[in-house]
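Can anyone check this?
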Amino acid sequence: MQTPSAVRRTAGPGFTLIELLVVIAIIAILAGMLLPALSKAKEKAKRTQCMSNMRQQNIAFQIYAGENNDNLPRQRETANSVAGVSPWDLPSLTADAITDSGAKRGILYCPGSYTSVRNVDFWWVFNGRYRVTSYAWLIKRESSDPSKPAPIRPPKQYLTKISNPGSLTNSPPSNTELVTDVVISEGTGARTDKFTGVYTSNPQVLPGGYNSSHMGSAKMPAGGNILFQDGHTEWKRFEPMRVWIDWDTRKFWF
């Protein structure tokens, strides 16, 4: 039987303080290298899911238009279904028509948007007369209030049919936006605008304000996915985007 002193003599030497600090430093360096890569992978997954949402939106539009003389869902205003000011607000009956055409309500919400603060069901019933979604819908609303939704700048215009030219210059469907990711700023519509913490009238719900759905570095948007009138989707970088919709001091870019 070994004595305690013999056990101590046969045990290997322990780590010195310097060696432990070196190991900790190496772990910190590796973590610093891996975290940005993991963040990029997470954002890429969100973009992919977002694009999948838009493809499913297009299927619902095609089904609805096929049964309604090429029209996009534009239900008439009722006491319980009205247009909101923001392009992400859909009259209740319009949003319901999209889901009735086979779409799940989840595809009306980008995974990179404010649905990370509150779940989809919360936003779906947030207002009793319109659905708060997280995409900008460039579909004409049948509203008695000409200020709803917020005005779109010419030559673009809100769409009424799935195949008609979508601008005053007869832009082809392959170049006409139907649904866009939310890329939003607060200011005059310049690159110096505020792109994070954009003003909201509901700070109790969104205490951090609005951000664009896909943020990049330096507190600037990375870009956004777009569903075009011909049914194709594509990612568009922020650099070539410009303001097309003016919601008071809040601007929508695509």
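Reply from J.R.: I decoded it. The two ends are 80 Å apart (CA to CA).
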